[in-house]
Specification:
The structure is a homodimer. Chain A has helices spanning 18-37, 52-63, 84-93, 136-152, 166-175, 182-190, 197-206, 211-222, 227-237, 242-260, 306-309, 325-333, 356-367, 382-391, 402-406, 428-431, and strands spanning 41-42, 48-50, 68-70, 76-79, 101-110, 122-131, 159-165, 224-225, 267-270, 283-289, 298-302, 317-320, 344-350, 373-375, 394-400, 409-414, 420-424. By secondary structure, chain A is an alpha+beta fold. In chain A, helix 4 crosses helix 10, helix 5 (166-175) runs antiparallel to helix 10 and helix 7 packs across helix 8 (211-222). The interface between A and B is large, with 99 and 99 residues.
Chain lengths: 433, 433
């Protein structure tokens, strides 16, 4: 049996003291508030699922990067690395929910990956999804939610939404003869930001493209900037096929809607945004800090085939999922992280053992008004109670003493100004409102 | 690769739709509110820990009832079945936090056990603990928190706190010569509520007690009722040793404090309450529904040796941990479970495509006032928008139409009364406050 030794927490896992938790709770509450304003409803999901649920969407390779194991009943199970497959099952099993279905959740996720700055093995993530609606209006609303989240966190200047439509990119590349190695080329584009331009061109040539084609891919994926500037440039590149023109028109409509939502200034077009290849079918986006020195804050996009792949009816879907790790890095860099400070509204100090009972009654009456109230539990004297009250950041002290009580009074001391006041016990309940 | 098949969630795991989540969130908010009123601070803990962290406290046998496995790095890890060992580590590693330390958390836990009514494999639990304070005042405050929780949930009549002090029970049993088989006897008492009286007596005889001794144990553990009635009976039984008398006096003091906290009526003494043998050192309690047909809602007590056992400094501790499962059963039985109903404050209905932009602007201005607002994402006509608005429980409809807009107005319809009113766009922002 192990004893007396230090058992540390696992690498890539975090524990939070009250101050850290107060800041974190504020962030989470902001993200919740945004969801609610747009009519998203909270759902709750299991943290452990049959492993095969993730095999369908992600394949064996990605499942390697999860916490998967055989449970004591011999079932292969996985600590959820994401929530989409679970949501797909819930959509499928609840056919009578009116569409569009707008769901959000605040969940923990786990991935067995090497830890880096902003990448942990256990992390929190909000998931926002709209199911059952394939329109560009739904795309625009998801982006509006993302911008509103940035605004709630004060990050609307420090970060921006980088948007692409994969169908446009693919059709442009096809027109230039890049067809057979499309998947490989998209993968290379997805890694573009990690490479120098020379490396990028070399990778494309290695994938079988001519030097000329590589340069075209480079040029196309360099295309980024605000909608006003980029749309005309893009129009010239869009091939003369029905699909491409439709995708381009949809992007124009998206621009117009984002303007109506008053979020267009927070968005740019960026033809290098791919979001991996797994399952996105149209519009994709990522949120980056404008200085570009952090990983993406989060990403999202449209995935219209996934629910069907997972065994449900064909159901269009669009969503995004901000995690807590990179948001925390960015907010701290921008000095926007909430103060990590615990507070107590009132400490009820008893001057002597004889007034203990009365002090507990006073504490109770204040708690009944939803104030955060502490009392002495340790039999401390006046000075030590005062010291503790100070250390737990008490705003007001209610001092219960025998002589005051004889007059039916207590002393209220403001811990910031130091001012003291005699207050009638009967009017104490109203005093703090 | 698996396709097109039904992958169900695991047995003993739950998923929650928005209605269920709204009710659940209310319960959790109540439990959070109680913690805050008493000055408890929220902490956050990892869901996965090194397995040996649980071996120390619970031993190999209990670890068998957990989700434990080797991670991809070969580490033996466990999905947390409880939070106390993690908290013990946090107390140990943060020596400068002022004592008493009062922590709460809202966490998920996992146990690999056979599922029953009110016992699941994945469940939520609030943990409330006071560390660094061994006084009876801390015991009383923890019980006061538990009663306040019942009151917040409306369960103060439907459930009660059953309190014991294990030192008193042990000293009484010792006096009657029951010493060598004490652990076994306590185990049998712990299971008493699951047995008939005859079974109980037989088990005690099997454990080596004489028939007479068995009857004494039965009599002592039958002792239960309100403090006023039981304390005199108990006084007669308390052996004449310093330890026993001290424990008895502490119970008297607890009674007095519970009275000051105004929670005495919600508490009874019950000498059969043991709370397992693992680590409790003094006062223990369980919360039961007064009709007695459900499992315990939760339990708690004093555990003054555990932090030291886990490698920290000697640190007294008292706490309790209500889970969500039995509370839900009881609240539903008592018709106290919150309504599982989603609500939308405003649906902004656009009469035609031409006013779409305006309707999005109206929606934005209402969201800026923190209202929960939905708009059409599907290009639906008037009637279908009305139908959707109904299905998502909209309270007010804002109808944006061309003719109204020409006059700078919209129509506001109350979805309950059906009343309609023309409202100037400029005064719409104030209209819903």
């Amino acid at each position: 049996m192990v004893k007396d030794q230090d058992i540390q927490k696992l690498k890539g896992f975090r524990e939070f003291l009250p101050g850290e938790m107060i800041a974190r709770r504020k962030i989470f509450d902001s993200m919740r508030k945004v969801a609610e304003k747009f009519g998203f409803r909270e759902i709750g999901t299991p943290s452990l699922e049959p492993m095969e649920l993730f095999m369908i969407k992600s394949g064996e390779e990605l499942v390697q990067q999860t916490y998967s194991f055989k449970d004591k009943g011999g079932r292969e199970v996985t600590l959820i690395p994401e929530e989409t497959p679970t949501r797909a099952r819930m959509v499928k099993e609840n056919k009578d929910v009116p569409k569009p279905i707008k769901w959000f959740s605040e969940s923990k996720f786990w991935r067995y990956e090497s830890t880096q700055r902003g990448r942990l093995r256990e992390f929190y993530q909000f998931n926002y999804d709209i199911f059952g609606e394939g329109s560009v209006e739904a795309d625009a609303e998801i982006i509006a939610v993302a911008v509103e989240m940035l605004k709630e966190l004060g990050l609307e200047k420090a970060a921006e939404i980088r948007i692409n439509d994969r169908r446009i990119l693919e059709s442009i590349l096809s027109t230039y003869g890049i067809k057979q190695s499309m998947v490989e080329v998209l993968n290379i584009i997805d890694d573009k930001e990690k490479m120098s331009q020379k490396e990028f061109l070399n990778e494309l040539v290695d994938a079988g493209l001519s030097k000329k084609e590589s340069k075209i891919v480079n040029k196309v994926t360099e295309l980024s900037g605000n909608f006003e500037d980029v749309m005309p440039e893009l129009e010239e590149l869009v091939p003369d096929s029905d699909d491409s023109i439709e995708a381009y028109k949809r992007l124009l409509k998206l621009k117009e809607l984002l303007d109506s939502y008053d979020v267009l200034d927070n968005c740019v077009i960026d033809l290098s945004i791919i979001r991996g290849l797994a399952y996105y079918t149209g519009m994709v986006f990522e949120i980056f800090d404008t200085e570009g020195d952090l990983r993406a804050l989060c990403g999202g996009g449209r995935y219209d085939d996934l629910i069907e792949t997972l065994g449900g009816e064909k159901t269009p879907a669009v969503g995004f999922a901000p995690g807590d790790a990179v948001i925390e890095l960015l907010m701290k860099r921008e000095n926007l992280w909430p103060e990590e400070e615990v507070e107590t509204d009132v400490y009820v100090l008893n001057v002597s053992e004889s007034v203990k009972r009365k002090s507990l009654e006073v504490a109770k009456s204040l708690r009944d008004q939803d104030l955060r109230v502490e009392v002495d539990l340790s039999g401390r004297n006046f000075g030590n109670q005062m010291g503790y009250a100070n250390r737990i950041n008490t705003k007001k002290l209610v001092i219960v003493g025998e002589r005051d009580l004889e007059k039916g009074e207590v002393t209220v001391k403001d811990m910031v100004s130091g001012e003291e006041e005699q207050v009638d016990l009967k009017s104490l309940e109203g005093y703090f409102q």
